[in-house]
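Whiteboard transcription, Tuesday session. T.W. wrote the structure tokens on the left side:
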């Protein structure tokens, strides 16, 4: 799981470098600056992923799934905007292709991470059910609760 985070961080760092190209792509319309909001949001999400991958307390798969879901949604928004305004805002082909490739990588990582999170939930549920069905006691027995009657008669 940590390896996936590190790989994701490296991929997302590359996307931020290409995002710098968009900073110089101010064009004829005030609408062309709208992509900056999406890129800043993307940069914040990536910095949170970076911080989580280097923190001592690691992120759970469910938390990682949430982060990558936000990142994927951000990428979808960015791709829609880029395709609609590419010509008007003179967005370079290299930036558009880089953003599209990065979005595809994020989508793949999100799928893997969210699958791992769902598998963890299923495994935890099975473990709880197994503990309840087996009585939950020591070594799968009825446990140490209840009473034990001493045998009657001569010892």
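and on the right, the sequence the group agreed on:
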């Amino acid at each position: 799981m940590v390896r996936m985070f590190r790989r994701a961080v490296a991929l997302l760092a590359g996307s931020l470098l290409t995002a710098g190209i968009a900073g110089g792509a101010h064009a004829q319309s005030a609408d062309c600056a709208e992509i900056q909001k999406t890129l800043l949001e993307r940069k914040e999400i990536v910095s949170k992923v970076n911080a989580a991958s280097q923190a001592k307390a690691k992120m759970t798969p469910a938390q990682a799934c949430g982060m990558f879901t936000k990142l994927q949604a951000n990428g979808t928004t960015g791709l829609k905007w880029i395709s609609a305004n590419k010509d008007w805002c003179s967005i370079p082909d290299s930036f558009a292709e880089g953003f599209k490739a990065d979005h595809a990588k994020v989508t793949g990582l999100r799928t893997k991470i969210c699958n791992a999170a769902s598998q963890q939930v299923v495994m935890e549920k099975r473990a709880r059910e197994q503990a309840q069905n087996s009585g939950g006691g020591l070594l799968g027995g009825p446990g140490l609760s209840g009473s034990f009657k001493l045998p009657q008669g001569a010892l």
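Someone added at the bottom: Confidence is low (pLDDT under 50) at residues 1-6, 8-29.
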